[in-house]
Design goal:
binds adenosine-5'-triphosphate; P-loop_NTPase; transport; about 260 residues; ATP-binding; membrane; single chain; Rossmann fold; ABC_transpr_LolD-like; alpha/beta; globular
Length: about 260
């Protein structure tokens, strides 16, 4: 599959594996809002480059807060966050836009631009990166087809259902094949069958080298896929083993490309 257009050239200084993905390291990170209590309390963890994790925890446990540190919307109150081979928590403000372009984000509330079409929303990261219009017209409809939105290329977000908007948001997050994908409840507005198919899209992205972290309340999904869980509780984090009882390659993809039937959505 080729849902990006030549974006990996000229990148340097990362903790990388052979695929060009990134490692994540939190050291003694705390986060609080204003004068409130610590939402994250002195947490430390390391995620391998090219890994795939679920982020779990009850409502209010701090999942969105942790993701906001990863997509560089906030800095920790204490501690350091290492990504792309550097301490991003102390990176100068003018370094942040370039770092953010390497991160795909699916926001819980989608954050689509209502005045732009589906196609133009998804094309945004490519346009920012200077990808040619010809490539955009080739790649964006292809990806929107994979997520089942071929018939909605020119629709604007206010005319779409919640599940359709969610798939536009997912397409926008993955189109540029980011080094890191963080997704906040990315299957919260779709049915189980579509959720499973979207997981296949994330897994395909991961296979191509992207480090993936998916926050979810959907225990059925967590039980279905064999990924470790970064679990938040009481401001603390633990890395827990997969809930699914099968190993990657055991048969989920038997019969070919898992993305092949996404067009039927
Ligand atoms: N902007 C903010 N200002 C003040 N408090 C906040 C802010 N954002 C989150 N919080 C608080 O931080 C805590 C963690 O919230 P967060 O949204 O990170 O949890 P969550 O695990 O993502 O929850 P959910 O599963 O319901 O989305 C909550 O107590 C919440 O009220």
């Amino acid at each position: 599959m080729a849902f990006k257009a030549g974006q990996n050239k000229g990148r340097t200084s990362r903790i990388v594996d052979a695929e060009g993905s990134t490692a994540i390291r939190f050291d003694n990170v705390s986060l609080r809002y204003g004068t409130g209590p610590d939402v994250l309390q002195d947490i430390s963890f390391y995620l391998d480059p090219g890994s795939f994790h679920f982020l779990t925890g009850q409502s209010g446990a701090g999942k969105t807060s942790l993701l906001s540190l990863l997509y560089l919307a906030r800095r920790p109150t204490q501690g350091s966050v290492q990504m792309f081979g550097r301490d991003v928590s102390s990176a100068p403000r003018d370094a942040l836009p370039a770092l953010r372009r390497r991160i795909g984000v699916v926001f819980q509330e989608f954050r689509l631009l209502d005045h732009l079409s589906t196609l133009d929303n998804v094309a945004l990261p490519l346009r920012v990166a200077g990808v040619s219009e010809a490539e955009i017209q080739r790649h964006v409809p292809e990806l929107l087809g994979w997520v089942g939105l071929s018939r909605h290329l020119h629709a604007t977000p206010p005319t779409l259902s919640g599940g359709q908007k969610q798939r536009v948001a997912i397409a926008r997050a993955v189109i540029n094949r980011p080094d890191l994908l963080v997704a906040d409840e990315p299957t919260g507005s779709v049915d189980d069958r579509t959720a499973t198919r979207l997981m296949h899209l994330f897994m395909e992205l991961n296979r191509l080298g992207t480090t993936v972290l998916i926050a979810t309340h959907n225990e059925g999904l967590v039980r279905k896929f064999p990924f470790e869980r970064l679990h938040l509780e009481g401001g603390q984090v633990s890395v827990l083993p997969p809930l699914a009882g099968w190993a990657a390659g055991d048969g989920l993809f038997a019969g070919g490309n898992p993305l092949a039937d996404l067009e039927d959505l």
